[in-house]
Amino acid sequence: MKKIFVVDTNVLLHDRSALDAFADNTVILPMAVIEELDRFKKESNELGRNARSVVRQLDLLRARGKLGDGVALDNGGTLRIVTSLTPLSDEVLDVDIADNRIIQVAYQLHRQGERVIFVTKDINARIKADALGIEAMDFENKKVNFDELFTGYRALKVSGAAVDEFVANRSLPLPEANLMPNEFVTLIDEADSKHTAFGRFMADGQLLALNAANDTAWHIKPRSREQRMTLELLLDDSIQVVTLVGQAGTGKTLLALAAGLEKTIVQKRYDKMLVTRPIMPFGRDIGYLPGDKEEKLSNWMLPIFDNLTYLMARPSSGDHKTTVRDKIEKLQRDEVLELEALTYIRGRSIPRQFIIVDEAQNLTPHEVKTIISRSGEGTKMVLTGDPYQIDNPYLDASSNGLSYAVERLKSQPIHGHVTLTKSERSALAAIAAEVL
Question: What is the pTM of this model?
Answer without folding.
Answer: 0.85
